[in-house]
Amino acid sequence: MTGIIPGVSSVLPPLQFGTSLHETLAVVSVAVVAGAVIWRLGERLKARFRTENAEIVRAGLLLVLASVVAAVLVSEWNATGDMLSVVGAIRLGVDAGVRVLITVVLFVAAHTVTRILKRLLLGGSHAKSRATSEHQRRVVFYVSQVVIYIVAVFGTFSLWGIQVSDLLLGAGVLGVILGLAFQNTLGSILAGFVLMLSRPFDVGHWVRIGDHEGFISEITIAHVRLRNLDGEHVVLPNEAVSNRTIVNRSLEGKLRHCVEVGVDYGVDPEHAESVAREAIADLDEIMTQPAPQVLPVRFDDSAVVLELRFWIENPTPQRKWRAAQAVIYSVKTAFNREGIKIPFPQRELTQRRTDANVRDAESRSRDSVDTSRS
């Protein structure tokens, strides 16, 4: 069967769809069987070797198979001059079934490429051991995914002869309408990309975001999930996260904590400092470098207040509480041993003598004398 498009024979070769439709059906059938075999083989390799590389190999083989089938079919239709010739031939009257088949192959290829990128960037322990952070890998994956599908969509438009300029004009108007309708959602998505690029925290970090404190359990382009210290999961939109103060207690890998203790005014403060410093210097719960410090900070109502400053490694709330507990126990034991008193709150009550008080006392004395005489 031969099909010649009038008026373009000088530009494109006549379209010839092979000697029979059976050849096209045979190619498609072989491709389907080969794809099923590749899929099954990938499942077996993944189950046997327990490795995620098998899925990458399977996706790559499917992509190669789709490309080979597309090349064979285009060659069968005698339109293999170049890509422009293929597009031109399709615009000039190729059968609708051919366009559908090419469209399906195009989106299958786009989906396969995105799966390979996702497995390479976000899946497996080999990806987590790279120098790049998970934030950066997610940004690269999402941007690459959008670009790949945009290319597939515009390629489909070209295959079907749709004018992209008119479509972009309509998309601009539609984008304004959708932007007004979903401004909060779009704002959270844009804030998500900003968070992923600025990297104020990562999954597993101990943070405080506004009034919420806990561990980051999930970061997406729309929201941040935080598990607080009570075991509750809090979902915060990225737009709300970017507008709040963020305190990251895990980023440095260490955290300083302070405990205050008061000593009696009758105790030498330098001696109390020395005893407290020796008591906490060798504790396993705190770091030796930076070294712990003991400093007098203020005069209180009943005591001179000393501040014990120390650092903990790989900070978590549990480590912080255990370190404070160990410091308090050790300092209290050392003060008891050295006879250093930690005073209770005290108040001194005194009577002020004034002229009025003296006159009242003299008057009461005279009244008592008169009463005794009578």
UniProtKB/TrEMBL annotation:
Domain Mechanosensitive ion channel MscS C-terminal span(s) in chain numbering: 259-342
GO CC list: plasma membrane
Transmembrane segments: 20-39, 59-77, 97-118, 139-162, 168-198
Chief place of localization: membrane
Pfam family, one: MS_channel_3rd
Composition skew (Basic and acidic residues), residue ranges: 349-374
Record region (Disordered): 346-374
Subcellular location(s) per record: Cell membrane
Annotated ranges, domain Mechanosensitive ion channel MscS: 185-250
Keywords per UniProt: Cell membrane, Membrane, Transmembrane, Transmembrane helix
This protein's record includes keyword Transmembrane: yes
Membrane topology recorded in Swiss-Prot or TrEMBL: Multi-pass membrane protein
Family listed: Belongs to the MscS (TC 1.A.23) family.
Alphabetical list of PANTHER family matching this protein: SMALL-CONDUCTANCE MECHANOSENSITIVE CHANNEL
Name used for this protein in its record: Mechanosensitive ion channel family protein
Organism phylogeny: Archaea, Methanobacteriati, Methanobacteriota, Stenosarchaea group, Halobacteria
